[in-house]
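We were asked to recover a plausible sequence for a given structure. The inputs and outputs are reproduced exactly as logged, with field labels preserved.

PROBLEM: sequence recovery
POSITIONS: 410
GIVEN STRUCTURE:
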């Protein structure tokens, strides 16, 4: 069967690989436009099942008044008069119950953990050079905040995820590069089984492997589907039509617009974030582990000679404009963690969209007719990619069963 995958980000490319392994003929179509908010290219690089706590939660509900009145510099709502955001927001609020937050967190962590194992296996099997580094830290500047996050993570610890609270000395022993941080570090949560790696490097390498295994990679903008009844017979692109026996839509945050043409709606909101990259990071100063400064909400990871620092969650439709205040926020966050970065000059700046569903769960599986979807992985798409691809391939084969397949079914 010829399966055409729309989207060559980490979700589309891992899907393509899983479909090739299942014996399909595969074509991947990606428009590869710069400045399109491709999340795969700017993310923090954390493979972190232990950071799977749902965004929609009672704690987030309590923060909403501050968010909506623009008092949270890391979390910005700029599109106040966006009807799509209002509908998405109402649905998000309905998911902020303790029961739903618990369920979402456990499901995301389970898929993340399965995915982590698969990703590790693929990196080793294909010798993919993507700067893999073991372990991560969630750093806190107050004992109270550390205890609070550790308590919130109880649900994941009870489920077998290895998350350990360490004091300041323990944190600096694990990551000596934080000794010079301009932060009053109180301690951290250590996630030893999590790891960091460069998702863009991995995706590019896996794309090459897919091509060697027979996939066609096409550079084109998919503008619609040519259908006969429920069945899509071809993709319409700016470079002509591409016939298909089945279609997988894995276009990140643009997935909703493509599927929207088919009658049903997928509710996704683009939550923009900034990714700053410094090149030429001296080996003796670079951090060994990735992590998150939970006070300033900036995440970091190192891959080869580069340091990536990310931050900001902005709700502003599909705007990829970089607001100076946001850039300042993330840059200062990076300098606080690693003051020596000031000597490296300005970083490269990218914007990416986290494809957020209102219930926090990715949508993986059958959509309608011969159309399948793999999208909506929000802030955890790099972590969940390989597991999501496995579920997607099972769905295309008509073999999707079990609790995860049911929970993530669109
Ligand atoms: C700042 C930031 C930090 C993050 N940090 C982490 C992290 O540390 N760990 C983690 O697990 N996750 C993280 N994420 C989330 C993760 O990056 C995303 O969930 C993941 O990359 C989504 O991948 P994707 O392939 O679905 O989307 P994308 O990477 O956005 O790729 C979508 C692709 O589809 C293509 N496309 C879309 N529409 C069309 C069309 N019509 N025709 C042709 N091509 C099309 C685009 O060109 C693009 O290449 C972060 C995200 C951001 C923004």
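RECOVERED SEQUENCE:
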């Amino acid at each position: 069967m010829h399966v055409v995958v729309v989207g060559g980000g980490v979700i589309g490319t891992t899907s393509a690989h899983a479909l090739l392994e299942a014996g399909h003929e595969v074509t991947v179509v990606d428009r590869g436009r710069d400045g399109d908010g491709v999340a795969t290219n700017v993310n923090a690089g954390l493979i972190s099942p232990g950071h799977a706590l749902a965004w929609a939660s009672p704690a987030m509900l309590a923060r909403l008044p501050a968010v909506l009145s623009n008092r949270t510099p890391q979390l910005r709502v700029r599109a106040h008069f966006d009807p799509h955001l209002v509908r998405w927001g109402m649905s998000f609020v309905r998911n902020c119950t303790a029961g739903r937050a618990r369920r979402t967190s456990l499901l995301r962590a389970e898929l993340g953990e399965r995915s982590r194992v698969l990703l590790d296996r693929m990196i080793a099997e294909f010798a993919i050079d993507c700067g893999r580094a073991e372990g991560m830290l969630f750093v806190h500047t107050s004992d109270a905040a550390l205890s609070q996050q550790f308590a919130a993570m109880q649900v994941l610890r009870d489920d077998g995820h290895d998350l350990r609270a360490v004091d300041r000395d323990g944190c600096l022993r694990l990551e000596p590069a934080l000794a010079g941080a301009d932060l009053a570090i109180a301690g951290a949560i250590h996630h030893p089984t999590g790891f960091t790696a460069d998702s863009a490097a991995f995706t590019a390498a896996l794309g090459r492997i897919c091509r060697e295994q027979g996939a066609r990679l096409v550079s084109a903008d998919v503008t619609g589907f040519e259908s006969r009844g429920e069945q899509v017979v071809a993709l319409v692109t700016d470079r002509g039509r591409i016939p298909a026996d089945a279609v997988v839509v894995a276009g990140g945050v643009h997935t909703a617009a493509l599927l929207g043409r088919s009658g049903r709606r997928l509710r996704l909101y683009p939550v923009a974030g900034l990714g700053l990259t410094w090149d030429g990071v001296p080996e003796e100063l670079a951090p060994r582990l990735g992590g998150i400064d939970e006070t300033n909400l900036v995440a970091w990871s190192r891959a080869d000679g580069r340091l990536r620092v990310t931050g900001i969650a902005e709700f502003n439709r599909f705007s990829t404009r970089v607001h100076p205040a946001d850039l300042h926020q993330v840059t200062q966050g990076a300098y606080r963690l690693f003051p020596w970065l000031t000597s490296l000059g300005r970083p490269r700046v990218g914007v990416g969209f986290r494809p957020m569903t209102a219930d926090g769960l990715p949508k993986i599986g059958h959509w309608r007719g011969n159309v399948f979807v793999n999208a909506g992985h929000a802030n955890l798409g790099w972590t969940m990619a390989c597991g999501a691809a496995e579920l997607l391939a099972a769905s295309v084969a008509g073999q999707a069963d079990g609790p995860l397949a049911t929970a993530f079914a669109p």
